[in-house]
Amino acid sequence: MSAVAAPAGSLDEAVPWHHGDPLAEQRTAARGCVVVDRSNRDVLVVPGADRLSWLHSLLSQHLTELSDGAATEALLLDGNGRVERHLVLADVGGRVWLDTEPGHGAELLTYLERMRFWSVVEPAASDHAVLSLLGPATPGVLAAAGLPEVADGRAAAHGDDVLVRRLDWRTMPAVDVLVPRAAAAGWLARLGEAGARPAGTLAYEALRVEALRPRIGVDTDVRTIPHEANWIGTAVHLEKGCYRGQETVARVANLGRPPRRLLLLHLDGSDDLPATGDDVTLDGRVVGRVGTVVQHHELGPVALALVKNSTPVDAALTAGPAAASVDPDSVPPDTGEPAGRAALRRLRG
């Protein structure tokens, strides 16, 4: 009843944008628990004896030894190592559950169907909806709603048709509950009665930005490789090969550094804020691209941006029409000279 719809054309226009006070919704998530309707995400399911080895050969994540009840992320890359799809998945009870961005499911399913060959798998669209819980009080809400609590990187089934999955958000507990779409309204009410305040995608996106979690197609462009968007280790396993785009992943990991890196920008607070896709400039020269722009309940106006690696961290930047500065805590740690480059230097020496 309190839901406010997102603007037309928004990626999330099919689900509530907020419930009257998006900043208060963020504060509740920081201190308690909120539930966010993310039922616009596309959900697929892959049963079959070969499901893990088959997906292992297609995706960037190491899946052959994924244990029952494990949850993780993965990427589908093109032949040049650029990111095409981002997936969240879990293997529970003989089935792999995948969910991806709104509108990406049909093309992903078509690709999976084309790649079946002789593998014993049956990829299919699932009529499930994703509901997300955020906040430190999430375990208590799950218990009150009769759902299992899960640790980071784990998932568990509730009955025959509900899945509870948790990934590491670094900043707060984040749990997805996959429920039959026809029962989604009932589950939203049940989670609300268990103590979760309804929140919209405005609050969810602000908290996602704080956690430095990129969203494909918003914080990435057609040139993005996994190293640029903090997906190495979370969605890409560097000790596996034989998947499309693997050569680029290995070459950048062993011989160089990515051209850009994902950073959090603090904006000047004016009403004239940048939009997704705007240029980030330094002294009039383009050095990056603006991704998600949000109003955070503590940080104020901030944005994720892909910025050239050579850009000084303390530089005075401009993001669209706004002055911007890099949050130093968002800068990836310097891991030193890549092993492959060091080996080449020793050989040449």
Tell me about this structure.
The structure is a single chain. By secondary structure, this protein is of the alpha+beta class. Helix 1 (22-31) packs across helix 6. Strand 10 and strand 11 form a beta hairpin. 21% of the residues lie in helices and 32% in strands. The longest helix is centred in the N-terminal third of the chain and has 10 residues, at 22-31. The termini are far apart.
Write a compact overview of the structure shown.
The protein is of the alpha+beta class and 349 residues long.
User: Which value, in Å, is the CA radius of gyration?
Assistant: 21 Å
State the separation between the terminal residues, measured CA to CA: 70 Å
Question: Which structural class best describes the helix and strand composition?
Answer: alpha+beta
Tally of contiguous helical segments: 8
Helical content, roughly?
Answer: 10-25%
Which parts are unreliable, with pLDDT below 50 for 5 consecutive residues or more?
A: none
Q: What spatial order of strands do you see in the largest sheet? A: 10-11-12-9-3-13
Q: Element order, helices and strands? A: EEHEEHEEEHEEHEEEHEHHEEEEEEH
Mean pLDDT over the residues:
94
Sheet-strand content, in percent, reads 25-35%
Q: Which sheet architecture does the biggest sheet show?
A: 6 strands, mixed
* Overall outline: globular
Tell me the number of strands.
Answer: 19
